[in-house]
Write a structure and sequence with these properties.
Elements (H helix, E strand, L loop, with lengths): L3 H4 L17 H8 L3 H14 L8 H15 L4 H26 L10 E14 L2 E11 L8 E5 L13 E9 L12 H8 L1 E7 L4 E4 L5 H19 L5 H9 L7 H9 L3 H4 L3 H19 L3 H4 L4 H19 L4 H18 L7 H14 L7 H20 L10 H31 L1 E2 L3 H26 L6 H22 L6 E2 L5 H16 L9 H10 L8 E3 L5 E6 L2 E6 L5 H7 L7 E6 H4 L4 E4 L4 E4 L14 E3 L14 E3 L1 H7 L2 E6 L2 E6 H5 L17
Parallel strand pairs: 3-5, 11-12, 14-15, 15-16
Antiparallel strand pairs: 1-2, 1-4, 2-3, 4-5, 4-6, 7-8, 9-10, 9-17, 10-11, 13-14, 17-18
Helix pairs in contact: 3-5, 3-15, 4-5, 7-8, 9-19, 11-13, 11-14, 11-18, 13-14, 14-15, 16-17, 16-20, 17-18, 17-20, 18-19, 20-21
Amino acid sequence: MDVALIAVRAAKPAAAPPPGALRSSAAYAGRIVLFLPVAMMAGILLYFDLRAEPPAWLAPVAIVLAAGVLTMLWRRPVGCRLAALALFALLGLGRAQWQAMLMPPPIVVPHGVVTVTGRVSSIDLLATGRRVRIAAPRLDGGPALGRAVRIKLRRGDDVRLAAGDSVRVRAFLFAPSRPAYPGGWSFGRDQFFSGLGAVGFAVGKLDVTRVAAPGWGGALRRLRETIAARVLTAMPPTTGPIAATLLTGFEESIPARERQAFITAGLAHILAVAGLHIGIVMGALFALARFCVGWSEFLLLRVPAKVIASAVAFAGGVVYAALTGFHVPIERSLAMAALVLLGIVAGRRALSLRGLAVAAFVLMLIEPQAVPGPSFQMSFSAVLALIAGYEAVGRRFDTEGAGWRGRLGRHIAALAFTSLLAGGASMPFAAYQFQQVQPYYILANLIAVPLTALVVLPAGMVALVLMPLHLEALALAPMGWGIAAMLAVARFVGQLPHALIVIGPSPGWPVALLGLGMALLGLLRGRVRLAGLAPVVIGLAGMMLGRAPDVLVSPTASLVAVRDGAVVRILETRRPDQYTLAQWRPVFAHDRVAVARAADICAGGRCRFDHGRVLYLADATAAENGCGDARVVISPEPLRGACRARGRYVIDRFSVWRDGAIALRFAGGRVRLTTDRWVQGVRPWVAAWPKRWHRRR
């Protein structure tokens, strides 16, 4: 949910077009402009879905050709619009490739403990300690690297540290994790575009070799840390971390139990400081400033009240964005809020589809890598649904002429309608990204969002004002009461039957169809918009068609899942890999799963599953008695040629080292094999693996 949650209801619905207006070419020409960002988004997603990097010259040449075609077809309405859509799609593809070309190449992460020296660029406060990001690091005295490293400090390492300090620390470093299964979330791509080269943990205490000179960045960071520390000191451990997150953006300090309660209830957006929060802050400041200006005859006679209120609201939004870290979602929300305020000052609609299209276009130009992520998809789908929904039926919530009971009822109905639109539009994308659905999100948001808007954040703003006087406890107390009430709501909703429904991973094409259908429903007018229902229905149905694999091997072969009749058996070797197990949970969401250590159930290091079709071998010595007629042989250790036979699939430690996670699906007598390497292809953010690769069969 974005700034629209606060501002959309202030905008009067646009007048409905006269009958037959949609039949005119001018009406369609006005709406086709709204689809240009959709085409650009499609081009960006196409780039990230490719399995091979296109030639660097291809996109510029195609853009020039598309521009030429657009010029030639300028006076032909249909051809002109199609050429414009193609041009923007190519612009999206080219901008995404250009962004990838601008990023420094991945680094080779050494094995074992290394000495890392460099400059601290940021510090994260975690529930179990601190985590630092070191820019331009040197490993064991080598040259400065173009990518940063992120290191978790040892518990109890409380050395005084600030952004800009030069440091030295001994640490284990790890390359970006491979996806837990073919088609899983690519952490390598995230780290590639965020400028990270490796992550790790310290094995010794961090040494500060040079203290940075005070600067604006360091001063702001210290101010945020001071505010967070005072909030955590003044409030209980259950509500303090949430309050610190809302006021400073340090969300890593929230305990896992409270975070999961918010996720289960569909309230995770409250913990992710973004559009809702900055909308509340700026909306409250706008209303307060306009009220105060009304008491000054001098100002009212010289400056329009809405101009002063807009300036105060924008300044407050910038301050709040600075206090919460100027991260990408808050920057995007601040830009959208600025567009809303500009519309108010200019006497135009505060929120409109054209404004949303401009915001999307600007954001995709600045950071095209955000388009495949959940934040971009969920926020823009929610805002689109809010604007289109209130355009269609917003008049039904008009409280003019109604009594207090009618106004109260319509406000509650409007809040429920807002939650339905925003949550319903973003839920399919959340299900695609996180493989989970929260069916009671409307109930939870009906209580939590008003609490946040009327109690929690206003009290937090007052606490920030009172901190220089050391009186923040007066405001933090009611803020804590509001957070405690939200926690109670989250826990109540989380205990309802089927409060969190886990679903299996979905292929990409249903989500693309769903996005197209939502664009048609939201951007068109009249009955023609109903054409978007078919893609939405097909997309929702397609999201349910994903089939779990019959055999799944983790990127390190320490976990192996095999379908054995009605049960999926997951075998563990070495120490339990809880992270990969959590990633696999949605994959087998509709199956009965049994997890066991391989040593406990495999006599002599051998196990047979699925009527002998799958053979599990603990190591090469377990293959001395042969592999029989097994169609698939799996081992967490190198088999070094054992069990090789025509028509047999042998997956060992070398297989996953070469190709990443591997999945197999049985279809009668055929075996369909998919590897992570085949899914990701050869891209700039994918590690340079050996030349050989398993092809999909």
